[in-house]
Each structure stands twice: as structure tokens, then as C-alpha cells.
Amino acid sequence: MKTKERATISDAEWEVMRVVWTNKQTTSREIIAILESKMNWKPATIKTLIGRLVEKGMLQAKPEGNKYLYQAAVSEEESVEEKSSAFFEHICNKKAGKTLAYLLEEAELSFDDVGLLEKVLQQKKQEAVTEVSCKCTPGQCNCKASYDEA
Amino acid sequence: MKTKERATISDAEWEVMRVVWTNKQTTSREIIAILESKMNWKPATIKTLIGRLVEKGMLQAKPEGNKYLYQAAVSEEESVEEKSSAFFEHICNKKAGKTLAYLLEEAELSFDDVGLLEKVLQQKKQEAVTEVSCKCTPGQCNCKASYDEA
DNA sequence: ATCTATAGTTTACATTTGTAGTCGTGTTTT
DNA sequence: AAAACACGACTACAAATGTAAACTATAGAT
């Protein structure tokens, strides 16, 4: 049924991706060096993850002598956005605002961040609606009756 | 190594939880009625998910005659927060602000939401720092050299 | 009292994920 | 050249997840 959608990056694989995203062009040796202690993984484990990421098309492996140079085939932004969107699919649209407020509270922000957020928020204020539309399947959220919400 | 952490709610299971969170007290019949068409799941599938959620301690099953009344054993807020925190562990602290800005842009917000967010943001402005501390393992983000960032 | 619809329990099975060992083959070192 | 090593490929294997059939007990219908 699935529209041949892009495979997802698992948590363990994500650790590897972060290394590759950080080091544009890297080797398995370097990835292993960076993750072995942080994750307490055996080199073999990391090799497996690299292999899977290549299979999934998330990593590109350029032959370099008898080994490979790895580089990301998907951007970090793109991936983060995908993962976060997936997360928001778990909650009702109407709860997005409150959830964002929560995340905001939890975050450590710089003045610049706050500035950026203020700007975006100002913009959102323009497009703000009186009532966010709930697209949930009946029975999966309590929005349908707008009057039963404060 | 893991501190006997609470099991997680998988995506499929999450669908069931949403029904239970919405209907404080519910029956498998109702859960099935709600999800069968939305998810294109067979009743058996939903029964399995319910069973697993009970095992995991996410659902409480109160005997009611020969069947059960199900209710959530964990709150939706708590669960959403856990899932979102897990997500933010995937990115460098320094990127949290930009990511939030992205999420904000993507969200459909009401005036109330904007108001709430403004309030929270004002508060964050107080506690804002000049530079967010990066806690990443070297090699997993580019923050270490604060001067190589604009 | 019997039949039947139903809810829960058990079993099933492929895929994904986490975690890793082994093997073959070049590469580096001595 | 021989030994050691490094890297990718292949294999392994348990747990989690998605998906569901089969079986069982039972409450309600007739």
C-alpha cells in the first residue's frame, strides 16, 4: 500500500548519519573511531549499520582504492524534518501548538534562537486561525466538539 | 546499561493509545470500530496491539464481566513529551532553535496558540544564553569550533 | 439447552532493528 | 616474502514490530 516511500533511518543508524553529516566525506575507520566509545559498539556493529545505510540509499559509498569514502545521500535538514513531521502525525493538529510550547520550554535557546523564533512567530501570527482544524479520525481526539474544549 | 526504562509505544500501538486517551474508558470493540477502517487493520491485528500495550503496562485492563474495559496507564502528555524528547536527542542542542523554528513554520496555529507561544518565548528570552552549549560527541556535530559557525 | 457471536489468548510469520562474529582479500610492516 | 592488519561482505541471531489467523471460553439469542 505504501507509496514506495523512502526507508527510514533507525536510531542506531542515526548515530552513524550524524558522523557522516558532520564530516562531509569520511571513512568507516573514522566513523568507527567516533562511535565505538560513545555507543559502546563493536566495530562490526558499526560496519553493519554503514552497510544498511548504503543499502537504504542514505549513504553514498565512493570507491577509494580498496575502500570507500562515505558521504550522506540525504541531508540532515531533510532527515530531521522528516522525522519531526512523522512525530507530529502522532498528535492532533490542535495540540501542535501546545506541544511546540512544551518543546520550547524544554529547549536551551540562544538570543539568536529567540530572535529567529520571534520572527517566525510574528509571521505565524498573521496566518493564525481562530480554530485549528482537526483532521483526526473520530475517536482519536476530542476536538470534534469545539465546545467541550475550554 | 539502560535504567530499566519504560517500554516505548510503537507507531501502530500509538494509534490504539490515541483511541484510549480520547475515550477515557473503552472496549476492544470500540477500538476496533475506530481503527479498522482508518488503518485497514483486521480486528485480530488490533487485538494483538491491545495485548501488547497491556503487557507493556501502557494500558490498564479492568475486568468487566467477561471482557475488559481499557484505559490508559500513561498520559498522552507524558507520552508525547517522551517521544518528542527522544527526537531532540537526535540533534545537537545548538540546532534545537532552528528546528523549533522549522516546526513552528510547519504548524497550523490558532491565535491562542500564538499567544501561548509568545508567552513562553518571552520567558525563554529571559533565560536565553549567548551560546547554547553543545554536548555532542566530537565528530557528530560541527559546533566545537564556535568560530566556524557564522 | 443449544447455537452463535464475541472478546480474549495463543500461535504465526515476515521484516526491521540492535548487536556482532567470521571470512576473504588486499595492505602494511618488519 | 611472511606476518599482521584493515576493510568490506556475508552470516547470525534475538528482540521488536506489523500484521493476522486460529482457538477458546462465554454470554446472549432462540
From TrEMBL, chains A, B:
Keywords for the protein's UniProt record, in alphabetical order: DNA-binding, Transcription, Transcription regulation
Listed InterPro entries: BlaI_family (IPR005650), Cu_transp_CopY/TcrY (IPR014071), WH-like_DNA-bd_sf (IPR036388), WH_DNA-bd_sf (IPR036390)
GO biological process, any: negative regulation of DNA-templated transcription
Keyword field contains Nucleotide-binding: no
Family the entry assigns: Belongs to the BlaI transcriptional regulatory family.
Classification via NCBIfam families: CopY_TcrY (TIGR02698)
Designated name of the protein: Copper transport repressor, CopY/TcrY family
Species annotation: Pisciglobus halotolerans
